[in-house]
Design a protein that fits this description.
- With 263 residues, this protein is an alpha+beta fold.
- The chain has a domain of 133 residues: Archaeosine Trna-guanine Transglycosylase, Chain: A, domain 4 (Roll).
- It contains 7 helices and 13 strands.
- The strands form 4 sheets. Strands 1-2-7-10-13-3 form a 6-stranded mixed beta sheet. It has a 3-stranded antiparallel beta sheet with strand order 4-5-6. Strands 8-9 form a two-stranded antiparallel ribbon.
- 28% of the residues are buried.
Length: 263
């Protein structure tokens, strides 16, 4: 058996990987409110996104490439040069793996200087600041743990209305079933283009969210992205092995008995 990496462990004879993933505070809140079950990320796809229209997706899943062991990722071929291919391993694991959420945080100290707890980005009622950046959060401080349900690859502008809602965009309080209203995350951009700073569709709301984070040029270039669909396992720290195993059975179903054993 290959030596386990520090972020890997065996459970019921199967290998599970724990990986960090960063979220902004607003998206953390949407996860806590059970509005967000998807995220789109371009990490690891730089080569195919230099000119995304020059590449075509061929396959997403376990791939054996150049006689290397199988890895979960995306396989692309170049439309200008069909002999040119690219395999990109997914930096967010595969279905059944765990993601621990890195968010803005701060250690809490008592009057004697002893640490007694941790505040997270949405805990402004108990800690007004200062805050530590999410990139510095250790795994031991993570409260939100996710299990990966599905990973696919698509262009960011191909997102559907349903998936836009799953991205956690905020439906406004005065919205109604017949006249839905969603938050504009980039109202300055809306005013610049002559738009109204309220979005009539979740797709448009997601567009403003993407632009507010990645910039307008990124949206125009329509990059390839990983689409990670996840389920929340815990909002209070690392879940128990029993909870992880139960969630894996729900996520993988009958596939779990066909996964290779590592014991």
């Amino acid at each position: 058996m290959a030596k386990l990496k520090p972020n890997q462990f065996l459970l019921d004879g199967h290998l599970i990987t724990e990986l960090p993933i960063l979220f902004q505070t607003e998206m953390v809140q949407s996860i806590l409110e059970d509005r967000k079950t998807q995220t789109r990320r371009g990490k690891g796809l730089d080569e195919v996104n230099v000119n995304s229209y020059n590449w075509q997706l061929a396959h997403v899943g376990d791939v054996s490439y150049n006689d290397l062991p199988k890895r979960f990722g995306a396989f692309f071929y170049n439309l200008s040069d069909p002999k040119r291919v690219a395999f990109k391993p997914c930096p967010y694991g595969q279905p059944g793996d765990l993601l621990w959420l890195k968010e803005t945080w701060a250690p809490l100290f008592d009057q004697d200087g002893e640490q007694f707890g941790i505040a997270h980005s949405t805990d402004t009622d108990i800690h007004p600041g200062p805050w530590e950046p999410s990139i510095h959060m250790p795994k031991s401080a993570a409260r939100i743990w996710l299990i990966v349900e599905e990973i696919r690859v698509e262009r960011v502008r191909d997102i559907s209305e349903q998936d836009s809602k799953a991205e956690g965009v905020q439906e406004l309080d005065f919205s109604s079933p017949h006249f839905p209203k969603f938050r504009d995350y980039n109202p300055q951009w809306a005013r610049k283009t002559g738009g109204v700073p309220i979005c009539k569709t979740a797709q448009k709301s997601f567009q403003t969210l993407w632009i507010s984070i990645k910039g307008e040029d990124s949206w125009k270039s329509n990059p390839w992205v990983w689409v990670i669909r996840f389920r929340v396992l815990s909002k209070t720290g690392r879940p128990s092995n029993e909870a992880i195993l139960a969630a894996r059975h729900l996520v993988l179903g009958s596939q779990i008995s066909n996964l290779p054993s590592h014991v």
